[in-house]
Each structure stands twice: as C-alpha cells, then as structure tokens.
Design brief:
One of its GO terms (molecular function) is oxidoreductase activity, acting on the CH-OH group of donors, NAD or NADP as acceptor. The chain is an alpha/beta fold. It contains 13 helices and 17 strands. Strands 3-1-2-4-6-5 form a six-stranded mixed beta sheet. Strands 9-8-7-10-11-12 form a six-stranded parallel beta sheet. A three-stranded antiparallel beta sheet has the order 15-16-17. It is globular, with a radius of gyration of 22 Å.
Length: 416
C-alpha cells in the first residue's frame, strides 16, 4: 500500500490509508519537510496509547501493547519508507493512534518551553516537592501554583517557599502563588500529592501504599472528572501512593461518562504519568553502595514496576544476576519500613527523588524513571518526554528478568 503524506497544522502526517479533510503533500514536499511528522496508525483504544515517540521502525508494526514494549524490537519486516526512516533517526516521528476520537490533537500538541506547574496537596510530600522545585526549577519552571483545601497549609507554604532565596548567586527562583480550585488546571503540569489514610508511625502494616488506595482513588477520581470538564491538555503527574493504580483510576474517571461508559474524550493515556519509581531506584543505589556484593547497580542496573509490591530491581542489564537482583529489590522495597522504624514517616526521599527531581527531568526531556501506559497498565520504567512523545528505553532483557516484569505487569492488571 502506497504511503500518503498530508499537512496537519504545522506538521506532516504520514499514513498508509486515505485521511479525509487534509491537504495532500507530494513526495517531493514530504522529502523537503524538516519538522516533526506524525504516523497515523490504529491500535485498540483503551489498551494502547494515543501517541508516542517512534524510536525504531518496529514500533510502526505493533498490533497491541504490553510489557513487551520494554524489549528491543524485532527489525521491521516490511519495507520502510525512506522519509519515515529519516524521521526516526532524527527523533522527529510521533505515532498517533487514530482509534482515539481526538487523535489530531496529539499530532498538533506542543511542549512548553517554560512550564507552569501546580502542586495539589500541601502535606509532607507536597511541601517537600515544592521546596525542590523552588530550589532547582528556575531555568525551566515559569511558576508554581499551590493548592490545598486547608487554607492554613497553603498560606504556610506560600510564606516558606517564597522565602527560599539566595541573594548573590544570580539564580532564578520560580514564583509561588496560592490557587483557587477554579485555577487548578490552568497550567502545563499538575502534580497530585493529596494523600489520606496514611497509617501512623508504629502501626504494623504490610503495605502502607495499598491501605491508601481506596480513599486516594476516590479523590483522584474527582480531579480526573475536573480535568475532563476543563479540557486540560497538560501532564497530570501522580505522586500520591499507590502511584500506578492511582494513575489507572485517574484515567478511567476522566474518561467515564455519566452513563458509566468510556468515551475516551478525557485525559489521554500519555497525559498521565506516575512518579514513584525514582525513589526506588535511589534506594537501590543507596543499598548497593553499602554492600560490595551489590556494587555496580548505579552504572549498570535498572528499576522497573510500581512503587511498592511488584517492584523489579535488576542489578545489571548486561550481566543480570537474579539472586543479587532479588536481594536488592527487597532492600529497596522495604526501605520505607526501615525509616518508619526510626519513628518518622518516609517522605523526604520520595518527594525529591520520585517527585521534584523526576518532574524536572521530565520537562527537560531527560531520561528518568516514571510510570507510563503499556497495554492497559501504568508501569514504571526509564523513559523521556520528547517533542515526538514519550520514548521508552528498550533493552535486550534477560529471560528471567522479563519473566519478573511479566509477573509485575499481571499483578498491576489485577488491581484495577
């Protein structure tokens, strides 16, 4: 089937099928086109992303999505168009899934040069995340809005964060302002840090995060409906626990109509990102530096999966050792309990490693750890946000490691 080229907004659309209502481009015009191009494909909506970055040609032949997205793709079996291959090499090809009713919005979307970030929930995590953004975000963050239903918390953090300033270093510090509920989605990224039902220190709980899920899912569902009603086009960053199931709860709530049916007009899968894996990676780094047997993780290892049960730490991608990886996984997974045993809640490292640092890496287009959508499940892995969409790191994975990832994927599917 011949490849067809179209103009869509300021971008080029490439398709194997006729697209009605768009002006056509000649082969010569397509070859001369220097900007970002979109490839129109079709995958099952609800079980796939609306848009993503095409990092290799095999992604154009996907029939479905799942945990296999993390594996190095097979070489494309069909003859690829030279223009398509050039755009892939340049990092300028976005896949757009025409199964979604609003797929053209994805092809036309632009990432901001300077981000407006709104933080919702000014508790322990929200306050610490705000501190990190205020200290480190000056070059990339235009402003930080803060919101909490408790006015005193907002006022406290408006005062505290606004007084973080170094007089003579010339650094920029993003201005902080209090928000009303009607202003929450007037931003490029909303960071959701609301959390209820956190067990008190000293209470024996097997998995603190899942205790929070029932109540937090109801709250995030309200925000999902608000995001749909306001037509929010930015990134919804979920920082509250349990991160990955809450991402899915948010997606469903935003896309479910009053009749209980999914309309897929709310938040697109790629608009939702979960931020819990960054601290698990940081904890694995910490413990690997305490034990010579576990050394080398920082340079050669990877973290995958959720912030909690189902976490997968690989001691090394090139020289995977399952025994060492399982040991390091257990240490990282239970690090929060070790902190709680000191008599304090473990929120500082999560708010900075999973929160502020990972959010800033996201908006800078840097590789980082966060949860994105893969075949109906939000699951954490190394990725980056580019002008052409989210690019997942794809690796030649050890069979045993991939077996662990598959188990985690199935575990997350069973939650929601």
């Amino acid at each position: 089937m011949a490849i067809k080229y179209y103009r869509l907004s300021e971008r080029m659309l490439i398709s194997r099928e006729e697209i009605d209502g768009l002006p056509s481009l000649s082969r010569e015009e397509a070859e001369a086109f220097e900007g970002l191009a979109c490839f129109a494909g079709r995958l099952e909506k609800g079980m796939s992303r609306r848009a993503f970055s095409v990092s290799d040609a095999s992604l154009l032949e996907l029939e479905n999505e799942g945990i296999g997205l993390l594996k190095t793709g097979e070489e494309a079996s069909v003859e690829a168009d030279d223009i398509i291959l050039r755009k892939i090499r340049e990092g300028k090809l976005m896949y757009v899934n025409t199964s979604y009713p609003n797929w053209r919005e994805a092809c036309s979307a632009r990432l901001p040069k300077s981000w407006r970030i709104n933080v919702v929930g000014m508790g322990d995590v929200g306050g610490m995340l705000l501190t990190g953004l205020r200290l480190l975000g000056g070059d990339d963050v235009e402003s930080i809005g803060i919101y909490d239903r408790d006015e005193s918390k907002m006022q406290r953090w408006h005062l505290e964060a606004g007084q973080i300033y170094s007089q003579f270093d010339g650094k920029k510090y993003p201005p902080v302002r209090k928000l009303g509920e009607d202003e929450l989605f007037d931003c490029d990224m909303i960071a959701f840090c609301v959390s209820v039902g956190v067990p008190p220190v000293g209470q024996a709980v097997k998995d603190v995060r899942m205790v929070q899920f029932e109540q937090n899912s109801k709250i995030i569902g309200e925000y999902g409906k608000m995001a749909y009603k306001t037509g929010f086009k930015g990134i919804f960053a979920v920082v509250s626990d349990p991160v990955d199931p809450l991402c899915k709860a948010l997606y469903i709530a935003s896309n479910k109509g009053d009749d209980g049916q999914l309309h897929y007009g709310g938040l697109a899968p790629e608009q939702i990102r979960g931020y819990g894996l960054g601290v698990m990676n940081a904890r694995a780094v910490y413990y690997s530096m305490q034990n010579e047997r576990l050394a080398g993780y920082k340079e050669h290892g990877r973290a995958f999966g959720p912030h909690g049960e189902g976490l997968v730490i690989a001691n090394s991608i090139s020289d995977y050792n399952d025994e060492l990886s399982q040991e390091l996984t257990q240490k990282a997974k239970h690090a929060n309990i070790e902190v709680r045993n000191t008599g304090f809640k473990p929120y500082i490292a999560p708010a900075l490693s999973s929160g502020a640092l990972s959010l800033l890496s996201t908006i800078k287009g840097e590789w980082h750890y966060s949860s994105t959508y893969m075949g109906g499940v939000f699951i954490g892995a190394k990725n980056r946000l580019t002008d052409s969409g989210t690019e997942l790191e794809r690796l030649d994975l050890d069979d045993k490691l991939f077996e662990r990832l598959t188990e985690t994927y199935e575990h997350l599917k069973s939650i929601i």
